[in-house]
Amino acid sequence: MAPGREVASVVIDDLRRLGTCTPEELAQRLPGYSWNQVFAAVDQLCREGRLTLRHPSRFRYVISLPTTAQAERRAPTP
C-alpha cells in the first residue's frame, strides 16, 4: 500500500472509531504521522468525497465522515 493510502486508511478508521474532530485533534490522535501527512490525507479524502470538512465558526474546522445522503450525492454515475 502506498504511504499516502496508508495514512488515509488510518484517518478513516480513526474517524469511524472516535467520530468527528478538529484537524488538530486528529493529528494528536495519530502520533505516528506528521501534521503534513495527516493534512494531505484529509485533503485528498475530502476531494474524493470520503470525508467532510466543515467550517462552523471563524477559527474552527471539523472533520467527519459524510452522511449516507452526502456520499450518494457525490458518487459518480455509471
How would you describe this protein?
A hairpin with a 2-residue loop joins strand 1 (52-57) and strand 2 (60-64). The model has no long low-confidence stretch (mean pLDDT 87). The protein is globular. The termini are far apart. With 78 residues, it is an alpha+beta fold. Helix content is 55%, strand content 14%. Helix 1 (3-18) packs across helix 3. The chain has helices at residues 3-18, 23-29, 35-47, 68-74, and strands at 52-57, 60-64. Strands 1-2 form a two-stranded antiparallel sheet. The chain is built from four helices and two strands; from the N terminus they run αααββα. It has one domain: Arc Repressor Mutant, subunit A (Orthogonal Bundle).
Characteristic key phrases:
78 residues, alpha+beta, two-stranded antiparallel sheet, 4 helices
Gap from first CA to last CA: 27 Å
Low-confidence stretches: none
Number of domains: 1
| Overall strand count | 2
Which class do the helix and strand fractions yield? alpha+beta
| DSSP helical segment count | 4
Overall geometry comes to: globular
Instruction: Order the strands across the largest sheet as they lie in space.
Output: 1-2
CATH superfamily: Winged helix-like DNA-binding domain superfamily/Winged helix DNA-binding domain
Order of helices and strands: HHHEEH
How much beta, percentage-wise? 5-15%
Radius of gyration, in Å, reads 13 Å
CATH class: Mainly Alpha
**Helix fraction bin:** 55-70%
Nearest-integer average pLDDT: 87
Named CATH topology: Arc Repressor Mutant, subunit A
The CATH architecture can be named as Orthogonal Bundle
Largest sheet: 2 strands, antiparallel
